Amino acid sequence: MAKIQNDLNGWLIIDKPYDMGSTNVVSKLKWLLKPKKIGHAGTLDPLATGVLPIALGKATKTIPFVMDGKKTYRFIVKWGSQTSTDDAEGEITNRSDNRPTVAQIKAILPNFIGDIMQTPPAYSALKIDGVRAYELARKGNIPEMKPRPVHIDDLRIVPMDLSCCQTGDMYFQDDTLQQETMFEVDCGKGTYVRSLGREMGQMLGCFGHITMLRRIKCGPFLESDTILLANLEKNDYNTNALSIIPVDTALSDISVLAVNEVQMKRLMNGQTISCKEFDVELLKEFTPDTVIGLQFENHIMALAKIERGGIKPFRIL
């Protein structure tokens, strides 16, 4: 019997359940939807929830652009203890009776904004001499994790009850002692939120670890775009009836160049188009490293770069 495969193309944004790995979500959807191609953009820890973009079909070609995009996380740090995993699953390695005030927490936040050096968790998927760090840690060989550069746009306190007001500044008294604090962080690729909890606790002299982590934005995709995996499991979705987000939504932040029908056909055949066929002033905005979305009839058909005086496609969508 021939294997059933559905020609699904676009993005499905799953609200990843707690205690389920990102690859497990992909496996479940592969079984439910039977797409020709499937992948995810941006791994979430099993204990994290929230926005997990799933690429179907042609959307898999745009995964790197979502993974490189900005992300926003909401998380809770419990003060007074540090754990081996930097979250609630690990063993406590350090304790303190100290608790920070809101004013003390606010005072350290600028240290974690901008281009900073961050030490990843020992229990992470980073490879040490070809082996995942968490595999070494689970065997008792705790690896030495070297600091690496990451970029954080903003880190802010938010109220536990988000319905009561919009900003932490409106809600907290500066002298309030905190047992646990909720934050939101806007960050770039490679940032470990668990490391933020650990490093803030160390700087405050009270230790800390993450007890809740939720991604609320990943590239162009928002929490409001998500659907529950459990809702998919209740229905037969082996058809094209899904409400799928268009492929080129993942490319909303890249530069766009409109092409006509003749140019589009040439591009689809992998041909290079001379820069002379386009507005010279417009092309001045692009460098050889700029990824250009080639748009025809409001859809991005290919990705290209400027090379030797021409627009050369490197990926057909």
Characterization of the model:
Helix content is 19%, strand content 33%. It has helices at 22-33, 63-67, 102-108, 133-138, 193-204, 229-233, 261-268, 280-283; strands spanning 10-16, 38-40, 49-56, 71-79, 81-83, 92-95, 114-118, 127-128, 131-132, 148-158, 180-187, 208-218, 221-222, 227-228, 255-258, 273-274, 292-296, 299-307, 310-316. The chain has 317 residues and is α+β, with helices and mostly antiparallel strands. The model has no long low-confidence stretch (mean pLDDT 84). The protein folds into three domains: 10-69 and 220-248, Pseudouridine synthase; 71-215, Pseudouridine synthase; 254-316, PUA domain (Archaeosine Trna-guanine Transglycosylase, Chain: A, domain 4, Roll), CATH 2.30.130. It is built from eight helices and 19 strands.
List keywords for this structure.
317 residues; Pseudouridine synthase; Archaeosine Trna-guanine Transglycosylase, Chain: A, domain 4; 5-stranded mixed beta sheet
Question: What's this entry about, in short?
Answer:
With 317 residues, this protein is of the alpha+beta class. It has three domains: 10-69 and 220-248, Pseudouridine synthase; 71-215, 2-Layer Sandwich (Pseudouridine synthase); 254-316, Roll (Archaeosine Trna-guanine Transglycosylase, Chain: A, domain 4), CATH 2.30.130.
Write the layout of secondary structure elements.
Elements: E1 10-16, H1 22-33, E2 38-40, E3 49-56, H2 63-67, E4 71-79, E5 81-83, E6 92-95, H3 102-108, E7 114-118, E8 127-128, E9 131-132, H4 133-138, E10 148-158, E11 180-187, H5 193-204, E12 208-218, E13 221-222, E14 227-228, H6 229-233, E15 255-258, H7 261-268, E16 273-274, H8 280-283, E17 292-296, E18 299-307, E19 310-316
Parallel strand pairs: 1-14, 3-12, 15-17
Antiparallel strand pairs: 1-3, 2-3, 4-11, 4-12, 5-6, 7-10, 8-9, 10-11, 12-13, 16-19, 17-18, 18-19
